[in-house]
């Protein structure tokens, strides 16, 4: 009985990275299974003047090469095939096409992380590290070609910033990349989120650096910008560190209560609601990712009434991050429970 009920509940969840973009879903499916990569190529070409949407399309299409079909491991060498994915074939056919090189670079990065795994660095085996680094090297080569072929496009600089973080590059190199990226697009959503990641404690910074960056960006960002959610993302990173590293004996609920009692973190949530979520601006490409973070912050700090319209805007499109960051409970379980609480107050 319990199993049947849970299956019915999870049918209300959709974790496909293409989310509610039907054209993107179909393009990724056709390309992934080798039927036709034309729709995928056309979608990327059509995004050349929309950097926000372009970053999303590149990321989602790259993710379509992970999960086995595009990242087969050679049992004799332990290496991932870097020629079999549709992005590899597209780049080989079109060596002077910046879109092809850009998507392939990101797909190699996705495959590198599939090999490494998403856990803490201490749990990664030496052979995983070796293949992770090799794939990142190949990704960097493809991305350099994309940068040369489309010098004004900020998207390859987003890839490069991602690679810098993955490789634990020096602060000087990261800041140089950051300057080039923001020169091309001062409010680039994905770029700012990556910089937040770089500055968080689990990578190369501290809680103080991370929150300072997030709040200074939000203070300057125009009304309606998704960058108003950046401090909420910082709080989610803080909570993850606290429960996994700093205070592992504290329950997730106890850490959530600390979030609730912090007036500055609560002000961050208020700001994201007022200056972004409740604004009439058109939805940006990654709205559903950002609104999941906002719902997560409201749910973790007990603001169920405020969370109700946020969950309504999410619908069934759960994103694994940040919901999988909640203690030892499954992310989809926490999401469904939090959404149910919010709906009762709607």
TrEMBL record:
The organism's superkingdom is given as Bacteria
Q: What is this protein called?
A: DUF4034 domain-containing protein
According to its UniProt entry, this protein's organism is Actinoplanes auranticolor
